[in-house]
């Protein structure tokens, strides 16, 4: 039986036993919440296993707050990315139960309240300048219930720093590798582990880096098998994909 079928059956049983009203059941059956400026997908978790994620960039603080308010009527887990401190301050005034991670620009359900997976992913970044994107990836995965181990400032210019950690990295089930400049770290890690690697190019580097384009092309041309490349600065996408793999591994 599908998730949707189970949901509808449970909903009908709740109405039958007077646990919820008919109007409450109708609200839960609605596929989206119309806010005028946005249609909030209320069935995302039932279809994909995780609620709709809010992309904060380009939205006003009021819009972000309204979307979060709408989602909290239906979901227990909130994840909003690319939210600056001014917008986050406004949201937390209305939703103090949430927490803000300024380094990653993420508003989310408190990570300490989320049960973590048995398996873990490794999040690596080449240098301190890549830290914000690495944290976006790591916190995204943690909000999705994944155990994360961080290995930061392990770039190839001091490759001994990576080798000191490689056994623990290998024991993880997915590696997310964040790097700017020439992006060589992703290829090196891809040649040392037996699990999927998600590579994220960052827009960190001097002029010829072209705001991450050079790094992107370098990673796409990697000869290391098992490496998939995300868009420039897309830590969220890497963390999300890694989390999906762990969830599939533990739920099957």
Automatic annotation (TrEMBL):
Molecular-function annotations in GO: hydrolase activity
Residue stretches making up the PurE domain: 119-251
GO BP, sorted A to Z: 'de novo' IMP biosynthetic process
Pfam families: AIRC
UniProt-listed NCBIfam families: LarB
PANTHER family hit by this protein: PHOSPHORIBOSYLAMINOIMIDAZOLE CARBOXYLASE-RELATED, SLL1489 PROTEIN
UniProt protein name: NCAIR mutase (PurE)-like protein
Taxonomic source organism: Staphylococcus petrasii
Gene name in the database record: larB
